[in-house]
Amino acid sequence: MLDQRRPGLGLLGAIVLLALGTTSAQAATWYVGAGSNNSACGTVVGAPCQTVTYVLGNKVAAGDTIKILPGTYSNQGTITLTGTRHQNVTLTANDPANRPELQNTRILVQARGVTVSYLRVRGGSAPADGYWGVIEVSAYPALIDHNEVWNGGQGIFIRTSQQVTVSNNDVHHLGATGTDSDTMPVLICNWNNDPVPSGFAQAIRVTGNTLHDAGGDGVHENSWSEAKVQFNYLIIDNNKIYNNQEQGIDTKGTDDLRIYNNDIYGNGYGGISNNSVYGDTARWEIYNNRIHDHRAFAIFNQGGGSARKIWNNMIYNNVTNGPYSYCAVDLPSDTNTVFYENTVYNNTDTSGTTQTCGIAARGSGSRVINNVFYNNGIGNNDRGNIRNISGEDSGTPNYNYVYPTGCANGGQCKVGNNARTNCQTTGNCPGFVNIAARDFRLISGSPAIDGGMALGAQFGADASGFARGAGGAWDLGAFEFGSTGTPPPTDPTAPAAPTNLRVVP
Q1: For residue 71, which phi and psi values (nearest 5 degrees)?
Q2: CB under 8 Å to 311, separation ≥6 — which residues?
């Protein structure tokens, strides 16, 4: 089973070492503490300053560190890091194990190379609406790490295009109760119209966070719809995204997107959504995720899109009570989209009020390969595991496990070529290790074993990093038989941490 433990950010140590290695000998550490004053404060922990704003305005120089002592602070207000004197400044806790709480506070990062870490930042006395962030980042590179952020409009609002890492934060409870607020734990909009990154090495990365209980989407990128600029290169990995009012991840014209190793569940509308009405949404990679327990879709495609590579995902218990008819997965129709090696289970609405199915392949049906489809769209008015409507879902799926093979509404479903359709055990036909616990590894005798075809090096490991085809032909679904179920190794193509964090004024 895919390990859902939140990872530490291994890159963080490298960032810190790099920063120390390029900081001048004059760099200082300043302290802020509750109940102190600004008359005789400085670099001694026993004589802290009263406010971060005072230190930024009167003490700090580029490359310095500000450490806040443990306690609860209601007097910090809006903290703004801006200009050359604030470049490469670190704002952090004196004791990471005892993080200070800053109440009714906003942090605005407008200088390059800033790190904000190990703080608890409460934007107000209660969740609020509004297009403002508790932490706002308008300059790059920047690192926002190991904070708790809540009671905003937005949580962490990134207003630039590249080289911002948001890692290991807990962002939650945004948006006023009972309103149709569109408030996000992480909102990305390149309002500055900053340069497009040259590749994934300069991508904005959202990694290792817990993003939940907000009035909008868990992660939302909307540069095209709001600022009328194209956004490229975004990585969303190793997050838990749940219980948000709208989607887990929503984009409005994002190109070059990698979504992997996330647990996305229980969001009000669905899992991952794109809306290319606002611009192209091309070159997406979605892999090794759990996307589950949504009343509507798991992966939804609206208005076009192209070049989706979707593999090794576990997609289950979606489309259970949607406001419209949905399939768990909806694909673009271009020839560069593929749907490989996924486990798609129990995505159905048995009430008969909507029409549901496992996947709507549209024109990408011939590239639906090596998947397990089990008990999807099995209600009286549903469309089965693989939808097939009057040529709209053209193309022939290949080398999949499909059970059941029929659907109840008059044959509007498809099996495809080389399909395996036998049932190993009633209630667990594909032969999963523990279907009740959603352990989708395969047991001996599973009809999914040796049922697939080789698909190339990019798809040559399963969701746990286990090599495919070691015992013969490739197996079907997210896991190869014999998989240990341990987390996948670090993605070798993931971006490095933002480099050159000590900018010389």
Answers
A1: 145, 180
A2: 286, 287, 338, 339, 340, 341, 342, 459
Cα dihedral across residues 181, 187, 192, 196: positive or negative? negative
- CB-based contact 384:406 (threshold 8 Å): yes
From residue 149, give the alpha-carbon distance in Å to each of 78, 146, 166, 394.
14, 10, 12, 46
The answer to whether 119 and 100 have CB atoms below 8 angstroms apart is yes
Residue 197: inside a domain, yes or no?
no
The tens place of each residue's pLDDT in the chain, 505 residues long, gives 333 333 444 444 343 333 433 445 579 999 999 877 887 788 999 999 999 999 999 999 999 999 999 999 998 999 999 999 999 999 999 999 999 999 999 999 999 999 999 999 999 988 888 889 999 999 999 999 999 999 989 999 999 999 999 999 999 999 876 676 789 999 999 999 999 999 999 999 999 999 999 999 999 999 988 888 999 999 999 999 999 999 999 998 899 999 999 999 999 999 999 876 666 788 999 999 999 999 999 999 877 788 899 999 999 999 998 888 889 999 988 889 999 999 999 999 877 778 899 999 988 899 999 999 999 999 877 889 999 887 888 899 999 999 999 887 666 789 999 999 999 999 999 999 999 999 999 999 999 999 999 999 999 999 999 999 987 899 999 999 998 876 655 544 444 444 434 443 3
Residue 448 lies in a domain: yes
Q: What is the DSSP letter of 320?
A: S
- Going by the DSSP 8-state scheme, the letter that residue 132 receives in this structure is -
Element (H, E) at 311: strand 306-311
Residue 337 contacts residue 304 (beta carbons within 8 Å) = no
Alpha carbon separation from 451 to 315, 416, 448, 472 (Å, rounded): 20, 14, 5, 10
Give ∠ CA 322-326-331 in degrees, rounded to 5.
Answer: 145
Q: How far apart are CA 313 and CA 259, in angstroms?
A: 11
> Is position 393 within any domain?
yes
Q: What number of residues does the chain have?
A: 505
> What is the distance of C-alpha 496 from the center of its chain?
17
One-letter amino acid of 269:
Y
**What are the helix (H) ranges across 155-235?**
223-227
Distance (Å) of CA 293 to CA 14, 83, 149, 258, 491: 37, 46, 25, 22, 26
Q: Record the pTM.
A: 0.92
- Other C-beta atoms closer than 10 Å to the C-beta of 308 total 25
Domain housing 422: 319-489
The first and second tokens of residue 437, run together, are 């616990």
Provide φ and ψ at 395, rounded to 5°. 95, 145
User: Is 276 part of a structural domain of the chain?
Assistant: no
The number of C-alpha atoms within 13 Å of 99 and in the hemisphere containing its C-beta is 20
Q: Which residues pair with 2 in a beta bridge?
A: none
DSSP calls for 102-116: EES-EEEEESTTEEE
- Give the number of domains in the chain: 1
End-to-end Cα separation, the chain, in angstroms: 49
Three-state DSSP class for residue 282: strand
